Amino acid sequence: MNLTINDFVNYKKKINKDYLCYSHGGKNICPKITWNCVANAKSYVIIMEDPDAVASTFIHLFLYVEPINNSSCNTISNKLYFGKNSLNENSYFGPCAPKDTGVHRYIFTIYALDKKIKINNNNDKINSSRNFINKLKNMSYNKFKNDKILVLGIDRVQFTYSFMNSK
Fold first, then answer.
1. Which residues pair with 59 in a beta bridge?
2. What is the CATH number of the domain that holds 50?
3. How far apart are CA 34 and CA 5, in angstroms?
4. What's the number of CA atoms in the CB half-sphere (13 Å) around residue 76?
5. Burial code of 119-134, b = ≥16 C-beta within 10 A, e = fewer?
6. Is residue 66 within 8 Å of 106, Cβ to Cβ?
7. Distance between CA 78 and CA 62 in Å, rounded?
8. How many CA atoms lie within 13 Å of 96's alpha carbon, on the beta-carbon side?
9. What b/e sequence results for 87-112 when a residue is b if at least 16 CB atoms lie within 10 Å of its CB, and e otherwise?
10. SS3 for 75?
11. Residue 7: inside a domain, yes or no?
12. 61-102 pLDDT, tens per residue?
């Protein structure tokens, strides 16, 4: 699917400050994400996680995308719905690795689905976001047993960041 986040990393191979959390001098802006459209995809799920977070994998972004048409696949020209991140907010939370916790990986993963799914922003708890993400990870190109959703494609992009090398 060729997932692309064009300017997430600058020419010095460091995450662009616009996308970092506020406490690291960033603007906490969700990056523009593009990908090749998948035939017959009715929706896409984009997740950004930090598996190196101190307590457990931290969800920075859980984004559900309904394409307006399947010829322009990006986070600018389609319907977007945010699920809960690990702060229990319906939003993007930029990389914010605590000082002296080493290098953190920030992994963007996109899933193309053959159906539209329901994201209830008001009632969705972080646990239901985690459960949905775990379902996606465990099924790969298989169907959800009860939901009859087929994953049509998956792609992943990884960036690294450490509070020590952010300047």
1. 49
2. 3.90.280.10
3. 7
4. 8
5. beeeebebeebbebbe
6. no
7. 15
8. 18
9. eeebebbbbbbeeeeeebebbbbbbb
10. coil
11. no
12. 999 998 887 778 888 878 888 888 999 888 999 999 888 888
> Could you tell me the two tokens for 111?
């899933």
Distances (CA, A) of 98 to 79, 92, 125: 33, 18, 24
Question: Do 72 and 38 contact (CB within 8 A), yes or no?
Answer: no
For 113, the domain range is 17-165
* 58 — pLDDT class (breaks 50, 70, 90): very high
Domain count for the chain, please give it.
1
Q: pTM, whole model, 2 decimals?
A: 0.84
3-state DSSP call for residue 134? helix
What token pair was written down for 61? 């972004």
Residue 127 pLDDT > 70: no
CA distances from 52 to 48, 55, 56 (A): 12, 9, 7
Alpha-carbon distance 113 to 100, whole Å? 39
Check pLDDT > 60 for residue 125: no
Q: What single letter denotes the amino acid at residue 54?
A: V
